[in-house]
């Protein structure tokens, strides 16, 4: 049964690429009845429409680097101002730096901010990401070994063709993880210090449903305290 948030919340999903944020975010969005905002989806929209932002962002994405703060912040804040976010939202891929986190906190004053950290080792991430497949149309995510589609290279949901993203290779992933650890790891300390962080180990043998229940429980336990 779906359940709305009693208090408007900005729920931040933290963790390295391939840790499972994209798997659980849509289900959490449906359960809580708040939008799932993925910076990856926002960037893909701009790339598809060939906007100026899309062309700039593409140069960094193709290198496995993070898009500069000034480009990302205004885009996300503008999205948060839309009416469907009035009761809360789920942020996937933002913030990625402490600067972004501080900026978000200063601009979002009418909602509680919570962070969920998906913890996984680099070794596990290499195995997961290099086998990942994505749908061209509905953005559903599969894995060649762990979660294969019923029909090879065909999406179960919309029957469109599946593909491997250009940045889902070992070479690009290595660079992405180096950048992630350098710029994003400090966010773990940032939100932990504010008693707004819950850590979920996604390497264990728990099922996806068990992990999802851990996520729901964590939302009852953390609240962003004043600076």
Report what the structure shows.
This protein has 227 residues and is an alpha/beta fold. It folds into two domains: 9-121 and 171-218, 3-Layer(aba) Sandwich (Rossmann fold); 131-168, no CATH class. It is built from nine helices and eight strands. A hairpin with a 5-residue loop joins strand 5 (132-135) and strand 6.
Biggest sheet record: 5 strands, parallel
Mean pLDDT: 85
Give the count of helical stretches: 9
* Radius of gyration, taken over Cα atoms and rounded to an integer in Å: 17 Å
Layout: helices, strands, pairs:
Elements: E1 9-14, H1 21-32, E2 36-38, H2 39-49, H3 52-61, H4 69-80, E3 88-92, H5 98-107, E4 112-119, H6 122-129, E5 132-135, E6 141-143, E7 162-163, H7 170-183, H8 185-193, E8 197-201, H9 208-218
Parallel strand pairs: 1-3, 1-4, 2-3, 4-8
Antiparallel strand pairs: 5-6, 5-7
Write a concise synopsis of the structure shown:
With 227 residues, the chain is of the alpha/beta class.
Attribute tags:
alpha/beta; 3-stranded antiparallel β-sheet; 8 strands; 43% helix; 5-stranded parallel β-sheet; 227 residues; Rossmann fold
């Amino acid at each position: 049964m779906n359940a709305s948030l009693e208090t408007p919340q900005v729920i931040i999903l933290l963790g390295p690429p391939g840790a499972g944020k994209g798997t659980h975010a849509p289900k959490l969005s449906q359960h809580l009845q708040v939008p799932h905002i993925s910076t990856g989806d926002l960037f893909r929209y701009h790339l598809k429409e060939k906007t100026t932002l899309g062309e700039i962002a593409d140069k960094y994405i193709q290198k496995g680097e993070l898009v500069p703060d000034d480009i990302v912040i205004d885009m996300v804040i503008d999205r948060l101002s839309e009416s469907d976010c009035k009761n809360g939202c789920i942020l996937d891929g933002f913030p990625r730096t402490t600067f972004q986190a501080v900026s978000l906190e200063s601009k979002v004053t009418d909602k509680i901010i919570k962070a969920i950290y998906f913890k996984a080792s680099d070794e596990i991430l290499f195995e997961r990401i290099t086998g990942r497949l994505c749908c061209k149309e509905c953005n559903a995510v599969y894995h060649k070994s762990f979660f294969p589609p019923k029909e090879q290279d065909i999406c179960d949901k919309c029957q469109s063709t599946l593909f491997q993203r250009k940045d889902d290779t070992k070479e690009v992933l290595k660079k992405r993880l180096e950048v992630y650890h350098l710029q994003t790891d400090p966010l773990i300390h940032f939100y932990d210090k504010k008693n707004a962080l819950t850590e979920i180990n996604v390497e264990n043998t728990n099922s996806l449903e068990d992990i999802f229940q851990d996520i729901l429980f964590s939302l009852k336990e953390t609240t962003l305290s004043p600076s």
